[in-house]
Amino acid sequence: MRATAPRARPRRTVPPNHPVANPLVISPSPHWTGLYRTARFLGRSRSPVKSERYSSVQSLTNQGPDRAGRTVADGPADPKTAQILAASREVFLELGYAGASMDMVAQRARVSKTTLYTRFPSKQDLYAATISAECERHGLRFRPEEFDGLSLRDALRRIGRRFVDLVWSEPAIRVFQSVAGESTRQPEPAQIYYRSGPEKGIGAVVALFEHLAAGGLLDTDDPAFAATQFLAALQGAPYCALVLGLGPEPTQEERYAFVDKATDLFLRGVVPASQKSGS
After folding, report:
1. CA-CA distance, 192 to 175, in Å (whole number)?
2. What is the set of domains in the chain, with CATH numbers?
3. For bias kind Polar residues, which ranges apply (predicted)?
4. N- to C-terminal Cα separation, the chain
5. Distances 269 to 168, 232, 233 between C-alpha atoms, Å
6. If 217 and its partner were Cys, which of 85, 140, 212, 242 is the partner (CB 3.0–4.6 Å)?
7. What percent of the chain has pLDDT over 70?
8. From residue 24, how far is each of 43, 137, 190 by CA, in Å?
């Protein structure tokens, strides 16, 4: 018999619409192209501030800016909604999306099922609102005009501080690990997570970059690409180590020092000034 080479097993590929990988990490694959187009669409077509469905989650009482330039807020205007979202945050962190249930959240929040389902008709709705509220709490739901009057560097540093305060935090890391780990078997939580968190956050930053470019503060013919590059730079090696559980959460001083360095590198680049002028 003539020996034949064994047939290679076909590689499993992730569908383009399957949000398994971190959407803010740049990749040369076609999947990134789709996410980049989504970012450009979001920057032009959506308001990054108010959720159409969860207006009660977005209604905040201002108390003044913190070190990251956020407007610290009390939370949802409806106390019961705030109570439910605080409980759902705990339950989803402890058990993940698959292990959590509406009954558990109602018990943890000490509200009736009627109260819960009146505000959030399904676990999908509750999970989406929980992710969105966490982004809101960290100041990643904003209008571009909020940064008017700031220099470009100060505006980017302010955004960067908000961003790393959220994505480098222990709860956010745990949620991402859970979503990524379950996504091959259960893609729906990953889709909800992406639509309610990263997608809206990217859209807000793209809208800001377009606003800055229109005002002459940013010199780019592609604000959406610049915005996503900036967000990718803010993750870096520390974020990768955190996701893999290889190090402790950086202190606030360490986070903000990283943001300053990443922002300055983004603005100045690495090409010497003499070469820039001669190009």
Report:
1. 12
2. 30-268 (1.10.357.10)
3. 54-64
4. 65
5. 24, 15, 12
6. 212
7. 71
8. 15, 20, 14
